[in-house]
Amino acid sequence: MDIWDIFNYNIKNMPLGFHISIADGISNAVLQAEELGCETMQIFTRSPRDWRIKSFNAQDVKEFRSVVKQSAINPVVIHTSYLINLASPDERIYNRSVNLFMHEIKPRKKSALTCSLRIWAAQRVWAISSV
To answer: Nearest to residue 81, comparing CAs of 126, 112, 118?
Structure first.
């Protein structure tokens, strides 16, 4: 077995999917992924470039869970905000990041769904001062 055999094995056994927009509703995103032949999918639950927290109404969440359970899509990957920086030395950004991060993971903990989170690994910003 050479490296290409290993590569081909991994590709054949890797679920394939797309990032799907939720603009037409979170449940419709699952249906769209199925129509595209996806085995997995990724979504943003809110704008990734905005600090505002968006909540879904209970009916949307219930419908989404139902559609996912009936679907072969697995896992559903939730992509967190680009703004989250848990390593920020700026207290304001750090606090906002923790708040937004907790908002992103809370519903996943309560859910019976197999959901993964895609988190950007932020960098610590170092202050450089001249002497």
So the answer is: 118
